Amino acid sequence: MKVIVAQSCGFCPGVRNAITMAEKTLAKEKNVHSLGEIIHNKDVVRKLSAAGLERIEKIEKIKSGTVIIRSHGATAEQIKQIRKKGLKIVDATCVLVKRVQKIAKLLYDQGYKVVMIGDKGHPEVQAVIGSAPDIAVVGEIKDVSNLSKHKKLGIICQTTQSPEHFAEMIAAIAKTNFSELKVINTLCREAIKRQSYAVQLCKKVDIMFILGGLHSANTRKLAELCKKYNKKTFHLQNYKELDKRILSGNNVAGITAGASTPQWIIDDFVENLRRFDARKKIK
């Protein structure tokens, strides 16, 4: 089978930095914890866990040692709790997420009602919510109606959202009853570039594969966008999850991957797919 890999895919700089920091910390220290999954990829999490990284969801459970702040960041209150317990902090927060946190606080200090476009349950959004008091999160058009009582709005966005969704939400917010609207583009340019390359590729191939964690926001967004243009788009974590029966009748496959997907997952998928012969009977 012919396989085409998107021009830009796999680890982004922020994820690569977080993993490098975790590996360096594990190499020289013991009793190392991460506050939640360091990145949204189970293969990478398992690998780091085998090297000694213990994933913890609640700070109260950490007795001693070092805490790695994951790429999605942590709230100001969580950082305060960690320091209060006398734990060492290794901050692997993506620089773009830190920027959103700073902007949220700045907007609040300037008197704006801070509104974040994104998924309220995502750890990046949760970390930003903790940067300033009472941040409103709007994920869908229906959420916008809750903003009508606020006159001065400061809008930011989860870094991995698509420009299309950002624009759609801004248009809906602009119809509310406000006196001032300040919009700051906090989208990740790397994510936007990957989304663009993925859409271009999915239009040219018979079948499209999006590789990465099923709970990874940026990977799900890639799959969502590609499905709009190619119904035969599949989101898988690795080659083991592939049902080879879906390959029948397809000659050209496209592949892209989320920002948390390691290169070895991509290489393994590509290598196995290129060896696939659609003419042979699938067992």
Task: Give the SSE map.
Blueprint: E1 2-5, H1 13-28, E2 32-35, H2 42-50, E3 53-56, E4 66-69, H3 76-84, E5 88-91, H4 95-109, E6 113-117, H5 123-129, E7 136-138, E8 152-157, H6 163-173, E9 180-183, H7 189-202, E10 207-211, H8 217-229, E11 233-236, E12 252-257, H9 263-275
Parallel strand pairs: 1-12, 2-3, 2-4, 4-5, 6-7, 6-8, 8-9, 10-11, 10-12
Look at the structure and give the CATH class of the largest domain. Answer: Alpha Beta
What name does CATH use for the topology of the largest domain? Cobalt-precorrin-4 Transmethylase, domain 1
Order of helices and strands: EHEHEEHEHEHEEHEHEHEEH
Please compute the radius of gyration using only Cα atoms: 21 Å
Helix % is 25-40%
How many E strands?
12
Label the CATH architecture of the largest domain. 3-Layer(aba) Sandwich
